[in-house]
Automatic annotation (TrEMBL):
Keywords: Transferase. InterPro entries: Nucleotide-diphossugar_trans. Gene3D superfamilies: Spore Coat Polysaccharide Biosynthesis Protein SpsA, Chain A (3.90.550.10). It comes from the Bacteria. This is Glycosyl transferase. GO terms for molecular function: transferase activity.
Length: 414
């Protein structure tokens, strides 16, 4: 997207194809001498067997400037954890694999439960939160970068572009958010951003009026991207949602804690594709069906916290305005796809819009039924206040798990 427009509350840093990736890499390698970078990879064990993660590791292995790579491993037993430790040994950088389901990690969870601070449900949010806690405990990182482990079109230069704004000492950005076009298999992807978030934000401006937070979200070209870099000074007080509202929740926290001038979005790729979630219209607890509901709730909760009053009539009107807006946008997406030689199934696209419209009502009703719901994981500042020894014990638990895994690996190879 080689333009140079600045038309939102946050700065947009483009890829104008005027600087080589190698030049940017050299610059970042210079910056990080005094501003070390840790990369966080939240991973399921199943992703070790997929197509994307091996390629991602091959690319990361060529990154010269990383201080450490922290991998959070979910849904793995002891044997699978030992296999994961071997799998990630291809990384030449210092790295650590956190087994989130280990007995030691569960014991730490029991300590948090005693304080009423344990994350409400497992998932990517809890995984990222745990990795952040480990990183904070090590106290040797200036910037934390996060990205998903299912990116089929991954390049190490995506990471370089993502972190450049927050490691450059001449820039004042605290948060950098990646954006890109979602393309794959000759299709225009990114349904939740295109068909839910974008038209919903337009509809909210119509129904509830001008809201700074809505304008803030509309500034982002891809608000649901999983690629974000943050200076670690922002992390102790960051409230991470435990549901599918993670990306919106992180932006909400950036909005709450920082001035918009401290936040930027940066173009990191012109061809991005990753694993696609099923629409799952028959099951509200899975796929894009659940994701869309959680995202709507995250937006409604934030607006309510800023003083917006919601009623059932508000949500009925919002659904109607959203539906008409989404269909109008769908026409634009269809034309854009056709001009670029991409295919688009209009029937499936409209099915998605219909489901998302229903989920606006479902999310609205869930909010009205429980307006005081707090799906956020407690901040690490609060955890540290309740249990000052926990972070140190987490590092010890991770090291003990790793030592056992390596012994198991040696025995299996002998």
């Amino acid at each position: 997207m080689a333009d140079f427009h600045q038309n939102g509350q946050v700065a947009t840093l483009h890829d104008l194809r005027s600087v080589s990736p190698e030049t940017l890499t050299h610059a970042v390698a210079t910056f990080v001498r005094d501003r070390p970078v840790t990369l966080i990879l939240p991973s399921l064990y199943s992703e070790l067997e997929g197509e994307a993660l091996p390629r991602i590791l091959d690319e990361i292995a060529q990154v010269p400037y990383l201080r450490r790579v922290v991998i959070g491993l979910d849904q793995a037993d002891a044997a699978q954890y030992a296999e994961a430790v071997r799998f990630f040994e291809r990384l030449p950088q210092e790295h650590v694999v956190i087994w989130n389901d280990s007995p030691r990690q569960r014991a730490l969870g029991d300590r948090l439960k005693a304080h009423g601070l344990y994350p409400s449900e497992p998932g990517k949010g809890k995984n990222v939160w745990t990795c952040m806690g480990y990183m904070l405990a090590r106290r040797d990182t200036w910037v934390a970068a996060i990205h998903d482990c299912d990116i089929l079109t991954y390049s190490r230069h995506m990471l370089t572009r993502l972190i450049y704004p927050v490691v450059n000492p001449n820039f004042s950005y605290q948060v950098s958010k990646g954006f890109y076009p979602r393309l794959g298999d000759g299709k225009m992807n990114g349904r939740v951003t295109r068909l839910l978030v974008s038209p919903l934000l337009v509809a909210l401006r119509v129904v509830v009026g001008d809201r700074d937070f809505v304008d803030f979200l509309r500034s982002f070209r891809y608000p649901l991207s999983g690629e974000v870099a943050l200076r670690t000074a922002t992390l102790p007080d960051l409230r991470i949602p435990s549901d599918w509202g993670l990306e919106i929740g992180v932006l909400s926290e950036a909005w709450r804690n920082l001035a918009p001038k401290s936040i930027c979005q940066v173009e990191i790729s012109d061809a991005y594709d990753h694993k696609h979630q099923a629409l799952s219209p028959e099951d509200a607890a899975t796929g894009l069906n659940r994701m869309s509901t959680d995202i709507c709730k995250a937006i409604f909760r934030k607006l309510a916290a800023d003083g917006t009053v919601f009623t059932q009539n508000t949500f009925r009107t919002l659904k109607a305005v959203y539906y008409r807006t989404a269909l109008d946008m769908l026409e634009s997406y269809y034309n854009d796809a056709a001009m670029n030689g991409l295919t688009m199934d209009r029937h499936k696209e409209e099915q998605s819009v219909e489901l998302f419209a229903e989920n606006i009502m479902r999310a609205g009703q869930a909010f009205l039924d429980n307006p005081f719901e707090t799906p956020f994981i407690p901040t690490w500042s609060r955890v540290n206040a309740a249990d000052p020894e926990l972070l140190g014990d987490m590092v010890a638990a991770v090291e003990a798990d790793l030592a056992e895994a390596r012994v198991t690996s040696c025995r299996s190879q002998s």
